[in-house]
Specification:
With 188 residues, the protein is mainly beta. It has one domain. It is built from three helices and 13 strands, in the order H-E-E-E-E-E-H-E-E-E-E-H-E-E-E-E. Strands 1, 2, 3, 4 and 5 form a five-stranded antiparallel β-sheet that branches. Strands 9-8-11-12-13 form a five-stranded antiparallel β-sheet. Strands 6-7-10 form a three-stranded antiparallel β-sheet, with no helix packed on it.
Length: 188
């Protein structure tokens, strides 16, 4: 009976835990970047057909920041604990990445637990548009194992081409704003 449980335990570990990024050379750090006092395990919190989103916590004395990293066919992008000042990391919850392999732009990030829908305002060649996406639930086992906020939701969306993201607004079940992002900075 014990032997039958071991492969399942190993498989669960592979499903939850994501690889840690290599150390960032000092010359690539943004001004004010700090090493966290502690960094949680990187875990996969959500997956789709051709993408995986990992998240981890970054603790800086009295502040906890959630960093996310999206992996897609042509590479990936996201936030690192040691890549920017803690206040910058805390304000930048939504990220974008142009996948050079597919020509697809990915918009992704962490959302409050109450988020249910996300509206993304875009501009491409001067034409403005809005797209709506679901706020995706996350793997509760992964959240607990990495000390991430309970019930945290995420945005993982793709759009063709390379539009500029003008703003992101997440709303709750009643349609009330729970997160607004403009110019790379978010506020509840």
């Amino acid at each position: 009976m014990v032997l039958a449980l071991v492969p399942t335990a190993v498989a669960t570990q592979d499903v939850l835990f994501a690889p840690k990024p290599p150390a960032l050379p000092a010359g690539l750090r943004a001004p004010g970047a700090q090493d966290p006092t502690s960094a949680g395990n990187a875990v996969y919190v959500a997956r789709g057909g051709d993408w995986k989103l990992s998240a981890s916590t970054c603790d800086y004395r009295s502040e906890r920041v959630v960093g996310v990293f999206l992996t897609v066919p042509g590479g990936g992008a996201g936030a690192r604990c040691d890549g920017a000042a803690p206040a910058v990391l805390a304000a930048r919850r939504i990220h974008t990445y142009l996948d050079p392999q597919t020509g697809t732009s990915w918009i992704f990030g962490s959302l409050p637990a109450s988020a249910r829908q996300v509206t993304v305002s875009l501009s491409e060649t001067g034409a403005r548009s809005s797209r709506r996406f679901a706020a995706l639930p996350t793997d509760s086992r992964a959240l607990a194992s990495a000390r991430l906020p309970a019930g945290m939701r995420v945005l993982v969306a793709s759009v063709p081409g390379a539009p500029e993201v003008l703003g992101v607004t997440a709303t709750d079940a009643r349609g009330e704003d729970v997160l607004r992002c403009e110019g790379g900075r978010c506020s509840p």
